[in-house]
Amino acid sequence: MLPPRIVLALFLTLSASLAAAAPPLDAALVELGRTLFFDANLSAGRNQSCATCHDPARGFVDGRDNAVAGAVSLGSDGKSLGDRNAPTAAYAALVPPFSRDTHGEHVGGLFHDGRAPDLVAQATQPMLNPLEMQMPDAASVVARVRENPVYVAAFTARHGADLFSDEPAAMAAIAEAIAAFERSPALLAFDSRYDRYLRGEVKLSADEDQGRVLFFSTLTNCTSCHLLETTRLGEGETFTNHRYFNIGVPTNAAVRGVNGRPPGHVDRGLRDNPAVSDDAQSGKFRVPTLRNVAVTAPYMHNGVFKELDTAIFFYNQHLVKNAGNALNPETGRPWGAPEVPATVDRDKLGLGQPLDEERIALIIAFLKTLTDQRFEPLLKK
Would the pLDDT of 325 be above 70? Predict the structure, then answer.
């Protein structure tokens, strides 16, 4: 467990490093990116924007049900369904570029599999995804942007009158603007109850504080994945080490039953990243941030768990003897088999001690304190 004074020192170091490392915000570019982020005209049906699947009113996740409990997102055509849950766009700007760390492990990159090397590379991909915004090609995206004289004036003033004659350059400029918005304070608030506690502005309740102690203790092993290494302090504390693991998440059978994936389809996660050729990476997904985790259900890369306590019970069942007999509290049935059983990181999952329901409730009380202040009304009482 990290003593509070050490946690506070780390937080202050993180904040200072982040402020020093971040380029100064260009207010005009941020506003341009914000407008693009909310522009439904950049989808095939002119009915879906970035904000549709990353709703600022819902913690920057997709709040629509889509007949699969919001596990995956509906495309612009009103019928296409993907296979992965839309992650929160909040704090995505702090995910490092896709790379290998000093141990040779993959780290960073956007999307669950890191296939977008960085935030700019990610920004326009959903527009071209045939299951998402469904624009047929980059030329179509550029043409939609050119329809708006405000966009044309803003982009040509910044990049020159010939920008739109160079399609790749125009797409890069669009991505740069959206990424600028995603780097703005609107998505990087750092004003949760926990942050305010560290700054001495509020006191945690007894349950929140006990949950904090449990979270940072070796008893739970939470911080082996959900805390930055000390060598990465400059990125800000987002409660993830940005690495990739296979924790044995089962297939979301409800989604597969309606989204048209063929029988036997396997989501290989990191292995499907074009930059990765090692089969040992199959089934691994990037560790998500825990910022706003209490208001960004459902959980796991495929949205298979509806409730936060279910996700924690899922981890817990790896630690309990005869875990195969443990039941998923949402279904009342045994946990499904891992989608990719061969690479499940059983050694890491076996660390820590089993938790009873009382301790799980305490950890959830702490996790709720990681909610940005604007999203606190979304918390379940």
Answer: no
- Domain containing 60 — which CATH number? 1.10.760.10
Q: What is the DSSP letter of 117?
A: S
Give, in order, the Cα–Cα distances in Å from 28 to each of 31, 42, 124, 154, 180.
5, 20, 19, 9, 10
DSSP H/E element including 308: helix 308-317
Q: Which domain holds residue 232?
A: 4-378
Q: Which residue has the tokens 């982009």?
A: 155
Spell out a b/e string for 172-204, using b for 16 or more CB atoms within 10 Å of the CB, else e: bbbbbbbbbbbbbebbbbbbbbbbbbbeeeeeb
Torsion over CA of 60, 65, 67 and 69, rounded to 10 degrees? 80
DSSP state of 19: H
Q: Name 146's Cβ contacts closer than 8 Å, sequence gap at least 6.
A: 152, 164
Question: Are 92 and 296 spatial neighbours (Cβ–Cβ below 8 Å)?
Answer: no
Nearest Cα to 316, choosing from 248, 270, 216, 379?
248
Q: How high is the pLDDT of residue 323?
A: 52
Tell the residue number behind the tokens 């915000």, with chain if given: 25
Tell me the three state secondary structure of residue 67: coil
Share of the chain above pLDDT 70, in %: 90
Query: For 216-235, how does the pLDDT look when each residue is reduced to its tens digit (9 = 90+)?
Result: 988 888 988 998 764 443 34
Q: What is the pLDDT of residue 347?
A: 83
Residue 355: its pLDDT value, please? 87
Domain count, the chain: 1
Q: Is the pLDDT of residue 11 over 50?
A: no
